[in-house]
Amino acid sequence: MLNTILSWNPILQAALATLFTWSITAIGAALVYFFKTIHKNIMDGMLGFAGGVMIAASFFSLIAPAITMAENLHLIPWLITFLGFFSGGLLLFIGDKVYDIYEKRNPRKEGESERASLKRCFMLISSITLHNIPEGMAVGVAFGSVIYGLNGATVAAAWTLALGIGLQNFPEGTAVSMPLRREGFSRNKSFFLGQLSGIVEPIAGIIGAILVMKVQVLLPFLLSFAAGAMVYVVVEELIPESQTNQKKDLMALFTLIGFSIMMILDIGLG
Predict the structure, then answer these.
(1) Which of 70, 240, 269, 251 is nearest to 163 (CA)?
(2) What integer is the mean pLDDT of 228-232?
(3) Which site among 121, 181, 221, 230 is 20 to 30 Å from 49 CA-CA?
(4) d(Cα 140, Cα 212) in Å, to the nearest integer?
(5) C-alpha 144: how far from chain center
(6) CB within 8 A of 56, min separation 6: which ones?
(7) In this predicted model, what pLDDT tens digit does every residue of 231-248 receive, in sequence order?
(8) What residues have CB less than 8 Å from 153, skipping those under 6 apart?
(9) Phi and psi dihedrals of 186, rounded to 5?
(10) What span, in angstroms and rounded, lies between the C-alpha atoms of 99 and 208?
């Protein structure tokens, strides 16, 4: 079975590998089903945990690889990462302001029941999805590079990268579904949106494998772009919201735990 898969066209292998990374995201999102009651302390802790995961992923999964890729492609690392990082944060900043304008023009009617924070949910889903696009492309590029024999690329190295990214996606799926549940979404909808943030990886992976020669140049910018979007969400929404809890020190500890787990996965899996 394994030998059969390894004999496939690298583009088909890229599709299978990124379907694997998406499935791990779905498994992480499925943790939402194990919480029968929604206690504020637990959900604020999950927000802090999500913030830690996203901060770690923004550096270890995105900025650091972007710097290395930019150097290998003979680009200017600090310029590419700055442009990408700032653009990613700026995009969500603009989206934030557009949403505020929409709310002012469409105010809630007096007596209307309080609705979930759509802005926070949208920003969270958007940032994780943006983060998954360049990761999917990175896997696709790894398999596509085998076709062209770039930089001594091998199928084994490509599958190792896919395994590493897949395991990293587990806490990311949880980082989306649990905060959505906190905002009042049903378990089914929280899971659906949580796993949906990872479905872009197979699409991006196939595109990356097909356009490997051109996509390689874009990857440093895309990785940094996703990092900027993630950091903006963490600073603007996740950590401030988790710190509304009376046990602020405990919520901060959850942030450290989230960061540590993601850091270990990133460094340990390369």
Answers:
(1) 269
(2) 85
(3) 221
(4) 8
(5) 22
(6) 258, 259, 260, 261, 262, 263, 266
(7) 887 888 778 878 888 888
(8) 142, 145, 146
(9) -70, 165
(10) 32
**180 is written with which tokens?**
């959505």
User: How many Cα atoms sit within 13 Å of 268 on the Cβ side?
Assistant: 9
* Residue indicated by tokens 């009651």: 37
- The distance from CA 224 to its chain's CA centroid, rounded to whole angstroms, is 12
| Band of pLDDT at residue 7, cut at 50, 70 and 90 | low
Burial class (CB in 10 A: 0-12, 13-18, 19+), 157: middle
**Closest of 241, 32, 42 to residue 124, by C-alpha:** 241
d(CA 53, CA 261): 7
Q: Are 32 and 185 in contact, with CB atoms under 8 Å apart?
A: no
DSSP state of 57: I
- The residue type at 222: L
Residue 56 CA, distance from chain mean position: 11
pTM of the model: 0.69
CA 263 from chain centre, in angstroms, equals 14
What is the total residue count of the chain? 270
Tokens describing residue 267: 């460094």
**Three-state secondary structure call for residue 141:** helix
Helices (H), the chain: 2-6, 10-29, 40-56, 64-72, 77-105, 118-148, 155-182, 187-196, 200-210, 212-233, 239-242, 248-269
Q: Give residue for tokens 């604020």.
A: 44
CB 180 within 8 A of CB 194: yes
- In which band, very low, low, confident or very high, does the pLDDT at 257 lie, cut at 50, 70 and 90? very high
